[in-house]
């Protein structure tokens, strides 16, 4: 059974479908989705649909990213809604909108709210790795990490974690299209929604697969050029 980590999707549904076929994903794999499924790219609704469907038939751990956090909080008050829209929520609402009007929160189906609120989590760990959306304080256990670190902190050469486990994260786009590997920490957000790639990493072997919005694919290994 493989543990496959998938970086920030950000509405890049074409990349997700191409990646799922290219790897390919299997129902006995554990897919660890690193969050930021929505916003910025054009097809957030389709991405959440795909995640919801896969969670019903395969093994999947869905982390919550800062963009899911903003989307959930957009229901609380007008300022939170404005903050989310300015951060890319406008593209998410547009993906849910009927063709006759601008998208609104009420257009998001209850099943999607339930998935984002009830099935996403802050972190996940195995015997050798742990997975978060953004980063962690090296000296704190995972269950004591503050929200800022888990969802918002940039990947600025973090030190090794006190657990001795390897951190796999997203959040900080690597605009080169290549994951950033520090040995003890790996960032696999490779700018999928824009000119980059959506990355999948087999955490046990270091094998990488990527796909983009044009349906192009490539593969390789950590610390080796991708082709």
Please tell me the overall pLDDT.
96
Structural class: alpha/beta
Q: Uncertain regions: pLDDT < 50 for 5+ in a row?
A: none
Q: Return the CATH topology.
A: Purple Acid Phosphatase, chain A, domain 2
Name the CATH superfamily classification. Metallo-dependent phosphatases
Explain the overall architecture.
By secondary structure, the chain is an alpha/beta fold. It has one domain (about 5-220): 4-Layer Sandwich (Purple Acid Phosphatase, chain A, domain 2). Helices cover about 30% and strands about 20% of the residues. The protein has six helices and twelve strands. The strands form two sheets. Strands 4-3-2-1-10-11-12 form a seven-stranded mixed beta sheet. A five-stranded mixed beta sheet has the order 5-6-7-9-8, with no helix packed on it. α3 (about 65-75) crosses α4. The longest helix has 19 residues, at about 80-95. The protein is globular, with a radius of gyration of 17 Å.
Task: Jot down its keywords.
alpha/beta; 227 residues; 29% helix; 5-stranded mixed β-sheet; 6 helices; 7-stranded mixed β-sheet; Purple Acid Phosphatase, chain A, domain 2; globular; single chain
